[in-house]
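Show me any protein, fold above all:
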Amino acid sequence: MSILLTITIPLLITFAGGRLLAHFKYPPLIGQFIAALVLAIPLIKGAVFTDESFKAIEIFAELSMIFLLLLTGLKTDIDRINQSRKDSIVIAFLSSLIPLIIGLTAGLLMGFGFIASFILGTCLSITAEATNLAILLQLGKLRTKLGSIVISVGMLNDILGIIFLSFILILTYKNGISSLLLFPVRLGIFVGIIWAASKLIPPVLSYFESRKREVVMFNLVILVGLILAILSELAGLSSIVGAFIAGVILQNSFILKRDEKHEEHEIETILFGFIIPFFFINIALNFDFRSLTEDPVLILIIIIIAIFGKIAGALLAKPFTKLKWKQAYLLGWEMNSRGVIELIIANIALNANLISTRLYSAIVLMAILTTLISPFFIKNMINRYPRIMS
């Protein structure tokens, strides 16, 4: 089967799922994710996908995360983030630390070794920011108090995830320690590049704006996002960190001072209309239905502690913040989605024989189910308490 056909079929299935849930007034993205799980059915998976199509979908999935964070940067209210930075730091710390401790402890109690238990705790501690932001964008709640905190906590969580990943790489590769020691140097160079970009990009874009070069400007916005994403990866950070920073830099240029915001609207249209479904398709294709019957008790335990850990971390942070209890509880659910860095960590650990296939399957299923469940709770709470995000 041709790659073109194996790309078209998943898009058709996820589009149908998205339209179905939109009919029931839920974000289409949830329906896309549910529909994507159909593609993981062994009979369909084997008939539709080839090794080449898997690689193509992985590329589209990575692009979806980059463009989503680029768009988020364009839409982010920096003033709100500054106002809530103390709350964000506390929530990010506790919502990562508590699941890590619970996961590590649970792993040891279930008979796994320290390294496998630490990897489990690490995977439970990390949030899939891309999923949260996509849902908030579709609900129109990104530029709110809690929306700003979700962005800040998500970025801090990604950085913590990269640090945890560095420790896993130390356990896996001989050059892991040298890579970790070089991290501050690469980070410093990246910060310098960001500073230079913030000075150079706005005047370049203004030059093309004055000449009404709409297509050129759109191309430049995409290129800026991709280039900073690449540089972010080279600095040892996630590519989505660089994409988000690119969006923030572009936000301070002329583009968002115009009434029509053409580039922002065009990116959002392309993102949700074509690219984002591949993010969910890629997660779904990591799922093996046979894992449901291999060790259901282990799966259930990991899912319970995954959900409980994030909510407990957010609630424990409440006394140190200005949030209400309902807001802290909602943030716990918003931090519950997994599906990006933790799957990378689990895959590296599996290939290095640091965890068993049994534990890997449970982690993948946990990532899928928490990503699937969380949006329903978020949507229902926002419906019950319309002002909870403000």
